[in-house]
Amino acid sequence: MISTLLVGFGFSAQTFHLPFLSYLSDFSIDGVVSSRPSEVKHVLPLAKVYSSLEEALETNNQAHPAFDLVIITTPNHLHAPQAERALNHGCNVLVEKPFTLNADEASALVNLAKEKQKYLCVYHNRRFDGDFITLQSLIKDGALGEIKRFESRFDRFRPVPRDRWRENAGPGSGIFWDLGPHLIDQALQLFGNPLSVSSDIYTLRDQGQSDDAFDITLYYADKVVKLGSSAFQGGQTLRFDIQGTKASYRKFYLDPQEDQLRQGKEINSSDWANTPSAQHGVLANGESSSVITTKHGKYLAFYEKLASAIQNDTPLPVSAESVVPVIQIIEMAIEANKQQQRLMLI
What is the DSSP letter of 319? Predict the structure, then answer.
């Protein structure tokens, strides 16, 4: 069994990680780092609660680590130093996205993990969205032909800022650091690194302290990729619009797994990860169209693959090395926005 330390016990930990850790017998949540011990004990009465990561790792050493896996779900600016600390104490590490706030830190952590011979994984769960899996299948099968234009969006209706670290001023805050990593990661998984990047990153909400909307363009030799998010979309939300030489595919609404996790739905429910019939995408070629049934999402598979990697030395679900280019593109997009110029990828 994989002895696990959960660092942070907020929304991310309780919504995206705890349900899968509790469901799979491979994991044992033996420790939690939190400033709210009573809340932790209510949910995890057998877990030991620590006031800091340093306290939790005090008994760890390379030969006999107290925890096999450290899962970091703290605010974004803490990801890199906490991952470094856990690796240096002989633990495998899973880091919430964004992996780090700059590419140098990301590369250094990848090298440290190799040096320590530990697994370093990033929680890019959106690689396991049902609509993204469906899209990958359409591209692989050649149903779209050569891709020429790709649009991917995470729009929401949140016109009033909330008082929380993600939306307040500070390093790593704002919607671009929150949702940009997902959109960029998916684009790079499909098409690889672009040749150049341009971007507009906005703060549009009244009294907003951090960015709340963005539009990023990735330029390739034979296609253009547009990624974006708005806090003012109150209606039907476009998720994907991909256009090729044989057909186009358009999909609205987000993958259902996040909402199901928010609602506390059991992972073994009969309708887990089922996309409602009215929310399937449409494939069209100008003469005819057909509804494409969205494949089931596989957030559970992320943790199954993570457990297998630690126990059986199989590939990670999302290696940290594969996420370094995501951080590089984020840095480029931030700089392109400052300069209001299209920047070439070095």
Answer: B
What are the tokens at 32? 């939690």
Contact of 251 with 242, CB cutoff 8 Å: no
Tell me the C-alpha distance between 298 and 309, whole Å.
17
Q: Which residues contact 192 (CB under 8 A, 6 or more apart)?
A: none
Q: Dig out the tokens for 52 from the structure.
A: 């800091």
**So where are the chain's domains?**
2-123, 126-299+329-344
Give the separation between CA 146 and CA 186, rounded to whole angstroms: 18
Whole-number Cα distances in Å, 90 to 43, 113, 118, 177: 27, 9, 7, 29
d(CA 33, CA 180): 27
Q: Report the percentage of the chain scoring pLDDT > 70.
A: 98
- Average pLDDT over the chain reads 96
**Which is nearest to 72 in space by CA: 94, 105, 100, 104?**
94
Assigned architecture for domain 2-123: 3-Layer(aba) Sandwich (3.40)
Query: Which tens digit of pLDDT belongs to each residue from 52-70?
Result: 999 999 866 555 668 999 9
Sorted by sequence, the CB contacts under 8 Å of residue 269 that are 6+ apart come out as: 260
> Bridge-partner residues for 123, per DSSP?
96
Indicate the helix (H) or strand (E) that contains 332: helix 320-339
Least confident of 46-60, 94-108, 191-205: 46-60
Judging by DSSP bridges, how do beta strands 196-202 and 92-96 pair with one another?
unpaired
Phi, psi for 125 (deg, rounded to 5): -65, -20
User: How far is it, in rounded angstroms, from Cα 6 to Cα 95?
Assistant: 10
pLDDT band with cut points at 50, 70 and 90 for residue 341: very high
DSSP assignment letter at 98: S
Same fold for the pair 2-123 and 126-299+329-344: no
CATH node for 126-299+329-344: 3.30.360.10
The DSSP annotation for 150-204 comes to EEEE---B--S--SSTTTSSSTT-SHHHHHHHHHHHHHHHHH---SEEEEEEE--
Which range, of 41-55, 61-75, 212-226, 233-247, averages the lowest pLDDT? Answer: 61-75
